[in-house]
Amino acid sequence: MQQVIERHNLHSENLGKMDQPSLELQLENSTSYTMSSNEIEEKTLELRKIKGEELHGMDIEELQKLEKVLEVGLSRVLETKGERFLDEITVLQRKGAQLMAENQ
């Protein structure tokens, strides 16, 4: 009878421990959180530099790299904008031609 009670108690204790993550898992989660937190901090700083908000600690080489990145990005923006204008002009020309045909 005593053995049955001991097994029951042991089983009950183990069930309680199953709800708690292991120390190894807690450490892994903590490390993952720290890495994610550091990565977010780095990306936030990078974004602020791109926006021109955190330039005071940058040397000439870093500023030139940032300038090049921004020039490439601006070039893509201008190219896309030009394509959209051309698409819009094409659509308007078709509509104009259709209206001219309907009026004849």
TrEMBL record:
<feature type="compositionally biased region" description="Basic and acidic residues">
    <location>
        <begin position="1"/>
        <end position="16"/>
    </location>
</feature>
<feature type="domain" description="K-box">
    <location>
        <begin position="26"/>
        <end position="104"/>
    </location>
</feature>
<feature type="region of interest" description="Disordered">
    <location>
        <begin position="1"/>
        <end position="22"/>
    </location>
</feature>
<dbReference type="GO" id="GO:0005634">
    <property type="term" value="C:nucleus"/>
</dbReference>
<dbReference type="InterPro" id="IPR002487">
    <property type="entry name" value="TF_Kbox"/>
</dbReference>
<protein>
    <recommendedName>
        <fullName>K-box domain-containing protein</fullName>
    </recommendedName>
</protein>
<dbReference type="GO" id="GO:0003700">
    <property type="term" value="F:DNA-binding transcription factor activity"/>
</dbReference>
<dbReference type="Pfam" id="PF01486">
    <property type="entry name" value="K-box"/>
</dbReference>
